[in-house]
Amino acid sequence: MVKRLVELLHTIGTDWDMPVEEVGSDRDHLHLFCKSYPDIPPSRVVKLFKGISARELLREFPHLRCKTGAGLWGVGYYLSTVGHGTYEGAVRAYVRNQGKPDQSFYTQLKLKI
C-alpha cells in the first residue's frame, strides 16, 4: 500500500507538472518535497495531492475507509517553501529521513549554517 501511495504521488506530480522529488513518512503523517510554479496557490498543490491520492487509495484499498465516513487524510496541513540553496538540502534530507532514528531537522540545519 505504501509503495502504491508513493507511485500515486509521483504520478500526480507528473500529471500536474509538480514533480515529486522526496517522500517521507513518520508514524501518522507524510512529508512531500515537490516543485511547483509560483503562480499556483499552495492550497491548490495540497488539495491536488491529498484529493487525488485519497480517491485512488480508497478505490483500490476499500478497507482504509473510516467507519465514521471521514476522509483518508486529516483536514490540516503544513506547507513551507524553499528557494534554491536556502536550506533546500536540509529540507530534502529531513523529508527523506522521516521515521529514521537520529535524523533531527535541527541537526541537519546546523550542518548548513
The appropriate CATH architecture is: 2-Layer Sandwich
Structural shape:
globular
Biggest sheet character: 2 strands, antiparallel
Measure the end-to-end span: 38 Å
Q: What is the percentage of strand-forming residues? A: 5-15%
Count of discrete alpha- or pi-helical segments spanning 4 or more residues: 4
Radius of gyration: 15 Å
Helix content: 40-55%
Instruction: Give me the side-by-side strand order of the main sheet.
Output: 1-2
Give helix and strand order, one letter per element, not per position: HEEHHH
Number of separate domains: 1
Structural class: alpha+beta
Name of the CATH class:
Alpha Beta
- The CATH homologous superfamily is named Transposase IS200-like
Please characterize this protein's 3D structure:
This protein is an alpha+beta fold and 113 residues long. The protein has one domain (2-112): Transposase IS200-like (Alpha-Beta Plaits, 2-Layer Sandwich). It is built from four helices and two strands, in the order H-E-E-H-H-H. The chain has helices spanning 2-15, 42-60, 88-96, 105-112; strands at 20-26, 29-34. The longest helix has 19 residues, at 42-60. The N and C termini lie far apart (38 Å).
